[in-house]
Amino acid sequence: MASWGVTPKIMRCNGGTGFSKQPEEEDRFSMLMDDILISILGRLDLRTAARMSVLSTWWRRLPWLLPELNIDVKDFLPIPRPNPIEAMDMDKAMASLTKATRSFLVNRHGESSSISTLHLKIYLVNDSLCEAGPLIGDAVESGLLKDLDLAILYKRDIWACSEEGMLQRGQPIDGFFSDYPVVLHCLTRLSLYTVRFEKLDMHHVLFDCCKQLKHLALSHCDVGAHSLFKIDAPNSKLLVLELTYCRFEILELVCLPKLEKLRCNTWVSRHAPLAFILVPSLGELELSCDAIHGQSEFKLSELLQGTTCIHTLTLGFKGENVSCGSFPPSIHILFPFFVPFLYSLCCDNFQKYIVHMFMHDKESTYIYLIFSSM
């Protein structure tokens, strides 16, 4: 059996009863075209892809030809993965990740191919952003890197982070965007976990600085508990906005002209969590939340005011109570007016009624979302 670092040899039939060795010939994998081999490597995590490169001298160059890189700090944690993840494990994982990133962005072994997208998931420990900033910045300036998908993870359960801890996490992120503006030229996707921007200008950081941003995902983020946050970004290229456990009292979308999809999962607002002013491209809306004590009811039809072209609406009530009723005769036309192009409505625990309701033109209805503890 071939060992690591030794090229496996093919055993070919010689027409008789046995097999003959042909040491001059390459292994079967290496007979495949580069495009196929790169496609295979692209489906593996980075550590495995790097290990595969020692199979032969031909494979050694292939990881540096990958057009898309996925460097995830969790792939550098010990196996089995510790639970909880200790600070020492995070530090070692980030050190290994930085080394791998430098290898792919700096030590290209003479290869001239560019990287279309770098998916980078990191922990916010020590000077992790400061170490990544120059590497990414140089890659952008040299034309090596086209798009960056950056996720700044949290090490444990998001609820384990105090409000002071959330504030502290916001400062290095703000500093990173200020110190390495060239990185923002290629930042097309950003995922943030457990960050509070109460003393920082969240709007400036996310929408004025990140001008190329197309996908923004915020999990357990806010500008202060139960605060109003307005997004007024007429020049934004944002297409997708995802909010999970964010503690905005109301998120008001004043102007996001290119936004196509919005997901809002589990809000803490006591009122309707969203308000739409100018979102002319919004076609997909997903709302999902379970009951929170003291939460007020609101009409879906009123929440959707300001939208004009929603075609897919997904509602998830997570087993809580929902009340539905028909429009009074005097305002039968209101709901179709708010969502005139609606053709798909998915709703767990209530799907049959909702589908039936929208398949008959004469049955105009509104929906009360009443979140009450069972």
Automatic annotation (TrEMBL):
InterPro entries named among the record's database cross-references: F-box-like_dom_sf (IPR036047), LRR_dom_sf (IPR032675)
What superkingdom heads the lineage?
Answer: Eukaryota
Q: What is this protein called?
A: F-box domain-containing protein
Species for this entry: Aegilops tauschii subsp. strangulata
